[in-house]
Amino acid sequence: MTMLNQLKSAGWLREANYINGAWTGADDQRTLAVQDPGTGQDIGTIPWSGASDTRCAIDAADKAFKDWSTTTAAERAGFLHRMAAVIREHSEQLASLLTLEQGKPLAEARAEIALGADYVQWFAEEARRINGQIIPSPWKGRQLQVTCEPVGVVGAISPWNFPFSMLSRKVAPALAAGCTIVVKPSEFTPYCGLLWGVLAEKIGLPAGVVNVVTGDAAAIGGELTGDARVRKLTFTGSTRIGKLLYQQSAASMKKLSLELGGNAPFIVFDDADLEQAVEGAIAAKFRNSGQTCVCSNRIYVQDSIYEVFAQRLAERVATLRVGNGFDADVKQGPLINEAAVTKVQAHVADAQAKGGRVLVGGKRHALGGTFYEPTVIAGATHDMLIAHEETFGPVAALFRFTSEQEAIDAANATEFGLSAYFYSRDLARAHRVARALESGMVGVNVGIITSEVAPFGGVKDSGLGREGGRFGIDEYLNLKYISLGGL
Ligand code: NAP
Fold it and tell me: I need a surface site. Which of 30, 254, 408, 447 has the fewest CB within 10 A?
């Protein structure tokens, strides 16, 4: 039996919506085919649902909220601990499903599934720590107390680049807080979204607590934002769509988390450990073939080490093996679709036209499909597209700088503010630059920063709210102040 058939027959790949505890098609039976970006082959279909199926899912979540919100913290923690255990027990199947629909190398898929389990476990633990507060009263005979309540039904919209872990940090805190949820995954990677229905079923969650609807993004998003029963929208995706959903949510005054685009600077000072900086740049730039929101487009290198850093990075990038994510030793999978390749090509062509020098890569890979050669461009300047837009592909552009202040100013010269990285062995500089960078997250001498224990999120056009860490659950809670008199 092929791996695809195994995933289908074992029930990990489901080609239906999960609404109110049942697997259903679209109301008008429309479907959409889903392709493996590694081969271009169809791997299955999904319901092409719209507003009415979404309304059914909201109905179910609204009904389930009444009982779920009154479960004890220990009960909710128990469900989530079981969910984390199921994910870990079946991590190989889940990682295969992820590589199949997303294309990333299996080693990266395994890491994403493990991270997803870690988020679920973290929020299982946090469920038991949703504490209120007693405030010293300014009035005699009164007690002032603050309690935390679940916000209500949550709508969650997620992207294709981390289709499993992005949802783990939405579904788990929502459930831990006592909320119910309606999930809409990306049409490019729907099966990792539908997995949350599979997991809900496996651990015996009550019907309606988790619902997953696939299909027409604008119609589903319109319903999720337009329905006043949905009290919270959590979105990860592009800044353009995030702003649209922000506007759409205004009428019903929803609580919002928006995890949006980035354009991370990566600064290498001349006092850095060069080899570590090269490895950090590889991690920060080329993970998931450059398709991460915390990827660095803009690598700023100080004058005196510019040439040697450029040469070392290009040599290292030339060793990254490109291929199908299931093949051994592959470090770079395909891009998600043809539109992604077109954007990368446009950024590289623009950089070359403006004087950029391609040190390695710079074109489609000989494998064809949506494979693109890992690329390093030297001589990048701020008038290039790559300096201002997310490339979302395997292209590292090297900019030159002289002074620390010049590097900070250039790093901050963007409307985005998600993550930033720099390498330096000077302790005072490490503190100074970390404070000066306008960014929600900063990596100092590291290229990978995501962890379930830390708050993930951005400033400026990179969004609102934080996922993970002890702050992650606050996004799903309302505070209630009770002033208790007559004591
Ligand atoms: P996207 O086009 O904004 O899509 C994200 C999600 O929104 C998908 O589920 C998409 O559905 C849906 N969507 C599209 N149009 C919509 C509409 N009118 N109403 C409601 N939903 C709509 O972004 P993407 O290309 O998938 O993801 C890449 C972007 O996500 C990048 O900008 C990246 O930086 C950002 N990102 C941010 C973070 C973070 O934590 N800050 C993490 C990962 C990614 P379909 O796919 O089905 O069209």
Answer: 30
